[in-house]
Amino acid sequence: MSTIIDTFIAPPCHDDIEIIEQDEHLILINKPSGLLSLSGKNPQNLDSVHYRLVQLFPECTLIHRLDFGTSGVMVVARNKAINAELCRQFSQRTVTKAYSALLCGHVENDHGVIDAPIAKDPALFPRMSICVTHGKPARSYYQVIERFYRELDDGRKLPLTRVKFIPETGRTHQLRIHSQLFGHPILGCDLYGGLLLADIEPAPRLMLHASELNFIHPITGKSIHAHSKSPF
């Protein structure tokens, strides 16, 4: 078995975590891009969503994660009982999520489904891979919001497509690798082909934002619809 060696050191993140809403049971936050969800094993990767929040809410635990470069809505439990109930909702796929993304190129169809199983491969770490044999089922719906061109400093026009993603499953790097698979990687993605041409200045961040999160409040039973406007 291959041994995974993680050499990634996160650069400092100077952006604050925005608390969208909170009560005695849970916290809804807007995570900035460039911040880990959980602290890494390397002491240089201590800063994270969880590390910052436990300073204010000592018993809090994360229900789910967003990639380092992804920004947007997360729900955080304030105790173990709430954690268990929210984890149950995630595992039963009653939680719905939506993401905003900028994809390289112009997507041909106005909407569609990407259905391709995803597997871990220590030899490719930190990348994931599409694997029909060993991969776990992964399904992503997309809807085109707009197709446009971004003019570069030298006058060239860069074709981009803004899409809304609704993932049916929640595999690691799912939207990033699915975007690459159908030929339109997410702009700014360093792992799955979104850095474009060598002579183009790279995007300032991964252009992926968790814009919506819908679930049932474990205590009140009310439907929670959390929104965060895309920063790009």
UniProtKB/TrEMBL annotation:
Keywords: Isomerase. Residues 25-180 form the Pseudouridine synthase RsuA/RluA-like domain. InterPro entries: PsdUridine_synth_cat_dom_sf, PsdUridine_synth_RluA-like_CS, PsdUridine_synth_RsuA/RluA, RluA_PseudoU_synthase. It is an enzyme of class 5 (isomerase). SUPFAM superfamilies: Pseudouridine synthase. Its EC number is 5.4.99.-. GO terms for molecular function: isomerase activity. The keyword Nucleotide-binding does not apply. This is RluA family pseudouridine synthase. It comes from Providencia zhijiangensis. The lineage of its organism: Bacteria, Pseudomonadati, Pseudomonadota, Gammaproteobacteria, Enterobacterales.
